[in-house]
Write a structure and sequence with these properties.
The protein is an alpha/beta fold and 433 residues long. It has four domains: 132 residues, P-loop containing nucleotide triphosphate hydrolases (Rossmann fold), CATH 3.40.50.300; 70 residues, Helicase, Ruva Protein, domain 3 (Orthogonal Bundle), CATH 1.10.8; 90 residues, Zinc Finger, Delta Prime, domain 3, CATH 1.20.272; 74 residues, post-AAA+ oligomerization domain-like (Orthogonal Bundle). The protein has 21 helices and seven strands. The strands form two sheets. The protein has a five-stranded parallel beta sheet with strand order 2-3-4-1-5, sandwiched between helices. A two-stranded parallel ribbon has the order 6-7. Helix 5 links the parallel strand 2 and strand 3. Helix 16 packs parallel to helix 18. The longest helix has 18 residues. The radius of gyration is 32 Å and the shape is elongated. The protein starts with 12 loop residues before the first helix and ends with a helix.
Length: 433
């Protein structure tokens, strides 16, 4: 039989079980274990402004509340999704009154702080500076990109990590002991069922408790046992963190690119699947794969560029999911191919010269002369047609601007086809000397 409903019941399980002390907080041992930096500061009741940066469900809001409670400070919570500068000013007035009347400090917690624009973030600065507010911002986005420099300089950034499977399992077992241990709400859970819920949560304690709450309701409607069948049912569909424009996105495409560069086809395939599974546009992956072919393989194996282009075309013709296999084929081929960044390095060096040396004239003998006037001015004069020279090499001919010493940008690597290219270039350069 289901338990009797009351006001407390309508609060989500994750909110009802929010830790009341640092000792109850699960995870983030790198910050809160005995002797760790944030733990030492809080035990000394030292309060300072901070940014809590981490994935959803890792305890940012809870930690902010515990900071205020441990330091005996007033806690004011706002969400950047709904709040504005007017709400900030009201919080400032409240903090000033508390400071004046009771000598009490105030923690202003702003969830989703990255949603405030620069002007809104600037509204905090004078009051953080004079100690009226101890500001705590929570964000899932990289503060380097989303928080303005003036606010960052006044707040310390603490990075929260995804919870481990053991952490999430601990949260689930504690919830069972507190909420479902006896009475009409009693639920017993099989170990494998809890493990299924923990894996489905993907390091997110809030999601784990939400899954448990649904699973417990189903168990109560039956025999009170939360088994693997129920756990699999509520966990169906899976959940992987991925943001199409933010930190997760750029971290994962970086991992894919570096796995290809590092000749690890298995890791490259894993990151490709992570991105596709997370909802990344396969066309974006296809464009990056084409880039990899030129940047990291180049002339060591020119087939890589051809295969990358063919994979992109195959995806356009087939769409998802069939076309994604062509992308996988290209990624695996390039991860296994001989590597060379010689063209990439040469291009960057040549571009630097082009940008820094000004508008150097094209030598007269290299200019085209389609008209009689241009021929009369000396355009194309004394040009040597390479195909008329021995071995098609105009020995001693100069192709750089007259005011620039010849430079050597392209240095083939001793891998793949570039071994043969290097040999051919050496013969040409020997003749040029």
């Amino acid at each position: 039989m289901a338990r009797e409903l009351n006001v407390e019941t309508f609060r989500p399980l994750a909110d009802r079980l929010r830790p009341a002390s640092l000792d109850e907080f699960v995870g983030q041992a790198h910050l809160l274990a005995p002797g760790k930096p944030l733990r030492r500061l809080l035990e000394g009741r030292s309060l300072h402004s901070m940014i809590l940066w981490g994935p959803p469900g890792t305890g940012k809001t809870t930690l902010a509340r515990l900071v205020a409670k441990t330091c005996d400070a007033e806690f004011i919570a706002l969400s950047a999704v709904m709040a504005g500068v007017k709400d900030v000013r009201a919080a400032v007035e409240q903090a000033q009154q508390l400071r004046r009347d009771a000598g009490r400090r105030t923690v202003l917690f702003l969830d989703e702080v990255h949603r405030f624009n620069k002007a809104q973030q600037d509204a905090f600065l004078p009051y953080v500076e004079d100690g009226t507010l101890n500001f705590i911002g929570a964000t899932t986005e990289n503060p380097s990109f989303e928080i303005n420099g003036a606010l960052l300089s006044r707040a310390r950034v603490y990075v929260l990590r995804s919870l481990t499977l053991d952490d999430v399992s601990q949260v689930l077992r504690r919830a069972l002991a507190r909420e479902y241990a006896d009475g009409e709400a009693r639920v017993t859970a099989e170990d494998e069922a809890l493990a299924t819920l923990a894996r489905a949560a993907d390091g997110d304690a809030r999601r784990a408790l939400n899954l448990l709450e649904v699973a417990a309701d189903l168990a109560q409607a039956g025999d009170g046992v939360l088994g693997e069948t129920i756990a699999a049912e509520v966990s169906a569909g899976g959940y992987r963190r991925f943001d199409k424009k933010g930190e997760q996105f750029y971290d994962q495409i970086s991992a894919l690119h570096k796995s290809v560069r590092g000749t690890d086809p298995d890791a490259a395939l894993y990151w490709l699947c992570r991105m596709l599974d997370g909802g990344c546009d396969p066309r974006y992956v296809a464009r990056r794969v084409i880039r990899m072919a030129s940047e990291d393989i180049g002339n060591a194996d020119p087939r890589a560029l051809q295969l990358a282009l063919q994979a992109a075309e195959a995806y356009e013709r087939l769409g998802s999911p069939e076309g994604e296999l062509a992308l996988a084929q290209a990624v695996v081929f390039m991860a296994c191919a001989a590597k060379s960044n010689a063209v990439y390095v040469a291009y960057n060096a040549a571009m630097a010269d082009a940008q820094q040396r000004g508008t150097l004239d094209v030598p007269m003998h290299l200019r085209n002369a389609p008209t009689r006037l241009m021929k009369g001015l000396g355009y194309g004069k004394d040009y040597r047609y390479a195909h008329d020279e021995p071995e098609a090499i105009a020995a001693g001919e100069k192709y750089f601007p007259d005011d620039m010493e010849p430079a050597r940008y392209y240095e083939p690597v001793p891998r793949g086809l570039e071994i043969r290219i290097a040999e051919a270039l050496e013969r040409v350069r020997s003749r040029q000397k």
